[in-house]
Predict the 3D structure of the following.
Amino acid sequence: MRISTAGFKDLNLALIPRRSHSDKYSNGRVLVIGGSADFHGAPALSYSAAYAMLSAMRTGAGYVSAFVPRSALMANRSVSPCVIVRPFRSNILSKADLKQIFEHAGRSDSIVIGPGLGRRANSINAAKSIIKHCVKMNKIVIVDADAIDSGANLEELCKNVVFTPNRIEFEREFGAVPKNKAKAIKKVEDTANKMNACIMLKGHETIISNGTSTKIVRSKSAALATMGTGDVLSGIIGGLSAINKDGFVSAVAGAYLHAMIGDILHKKFGDHITPMDLVERIPSALKEMGAN
């Protein structure tokens, strides 16, 4: 197993410069599926899908859209006039939404599913169907937050399915994470092999493995330990993977970029940052780091 610390080369590997005659459809298409009526009362959570959308756009994707609950439709649309937001048929994701989501997923390069989704049985079952369908279509799928519940027991996954659990979500689905660092890395690697997928265990030291290669991303601060920042990370990975078509490469690059921006913002704001601070800093951070 190859284990190394992620760095700028990993970020640059994921970034592909736009061709001069390209258009929005050829620059990567991302579909975000998230939100639920359960979280509508909390603005930061009802905007989960919007955070993912905006970060995908800021990372360079040419076309980004989302499906969200009807009750959160206007809240998500109000975040930016640039986002394309469509409603679920009700206030939660359900099987009634599958036909329209399959249609849009077929025209997308990567699918981000899970931010703010909720853990109702109807939503989890629908998310499971979406993940299975997207894998069959050879799409890159970033499985985040509550959607991790739906994907944890699926068979016939692939390395371009990226699970992004924090420690609590990981332990709920895959078992306890050892306190010993080497054993924790081994646990993530074994899980990636068992799932035949890419696993990202988020934390101060984020571990990303596809079962063959493992990368470690270290943060210098705890600035990212606040709600909504994980949605931004999912969007970044979605945007990168829509462009370069590699889930593992994008997960490593996304986690590295996310951590670097968090450290940059910490120097200015301390631990008092918001998800939108991260989103807005993506372009300038990429430019400052000299990325493609």
